[in-house]
Amino acid sequence: MRYPAAETAARHERILQEASKLFRERGLNGVSVPEIMKAAQLTHGPFYNHFASKDALVAESIDHAMGAMLRDIVAIGESASARQQFLDGYLSREHRDNRDVGCVMAGLASEVVRTPPAKGAFTRHLKGILGALSSKFLSTGKGDTRAEAVRTVSMMVGAMILARAVDDPALSDEILDQARAGLL
Q1: pTM metric for this prediction
Q2: Domains in the chain, start-ordered, CATH in brackets?
Q3: How far apart are CA 98 and CA 74, in angstroms?
Q4: For residue 9, what are the CA distances in angstroms to 13, 87, 181, 183?
């Protein structure tokens, strides 16, 4: 049975959204295709109508989630207050505690290393994010905005990874606070 193109596209989008959440929450290998399809309220059967493999889903899911992050950065204003708002949002307890809707870079970078099909989307969007940040609000007059963007993203993502990894809530908060202070 054929479905209208709009319905097929909506189902595809729903699969991507659910896969992206589950991958960020449980890791690329911590979730199965049937679990993703169930979360998308679909049966396992039509998965291969949308994706050639789980690796293809992983790559498209990363493309989807990082593309959304890039669009959010592009939509941010170009001011010191916009920079602070961006950093406050990223380096927040809410972001730390909600991995399923958090940053793909902080949630999955260590797994993308071992997933070659995902590297292209990850690389392309990281380059876009660095470009958007350097043109948006990273110019401090201290030199190369691209280098500043690389340092900023590295510190943000590293801080989020560490804040999520420790079992000491006070230390986790301190990591976020000190990273934010170092970037403002």
Answers
A1: 0.86
A2: 53-183 (1.10.357.10)
A3: 23
A4: 6, 34, 43, 40
